């Protein structure tokens, strides 16, 4: 294995652990209101519009039962509602409530502010290159994940 492969693997593992810790550090009384999994799911619902549970599960790369439990929690908190799918009355669509959109917007703004703080010492060119490469690795992981299904 090449030295850069070892270094990339090591840094990727460190990134995953530090990203979780960083997100958790933002969950203060004046910080983020949502757990990471709730934020990811509410983000899709609030910004993408109502969706079936199966589409949400596919989007967040989790099994249907896990997403169903998370939607139950978001619904109990008054952040989402379930309505019959007009194209198939057997299915339901999960949509954000007004409160859900407000909570999502507040959390998104705080998260984006934290990202700006994190990258404050980077030049515009470095941020653009990082965004390009980060998008590339996410796209590659999505493609490889589809192949393994």
UniProtKB/TrEMBL annotation:
It comes from Rugosimonospora acidiphila. Keywords: DNA-binding, Transcription, Transcription regulation. InterPro entries: HTH_MarR-typ, MarR/SlyA-like, Tscrpt_reg_MarR-type_CS, WH-like_DNA-bd_sf, WH_DNA-bd_sf. Pfam families: MarR. Residues 5-139 form the HTH marR-type domain. This is HTH marR-type domain-containing protein.
């Amino acid at each position: 294995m090449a030295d850069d492969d070892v270094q990339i693997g090591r840094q990727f593992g460190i990134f995953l652990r530090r990203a979780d810790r960083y997100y958790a550090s933002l969950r203060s009384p004046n910080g983020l209101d949502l757990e990471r999994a709730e934020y990811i799911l509410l983000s899709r619902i609030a910004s993408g519009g109502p969706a079936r549970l199966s589409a949400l599960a596919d989007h967040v790369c989790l099994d249907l039962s896990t997403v169903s439990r998370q939607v139950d929690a978001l619904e109990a908190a008054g952040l989402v509602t379930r309505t019959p799918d007009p194209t198939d009355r057997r299915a339901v669509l999960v949509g954000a409530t007004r409160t859900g959109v407000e909570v999502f917007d507040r959390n998104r703004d705080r998260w984006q502010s934290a990202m700006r703080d994190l990258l404050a010492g980077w030049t515009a060119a470095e941020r653009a290159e990082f965004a390009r490469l980060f998008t590339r690795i996410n796209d590659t992981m999505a493609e490889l994940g589809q192949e393994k299904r």
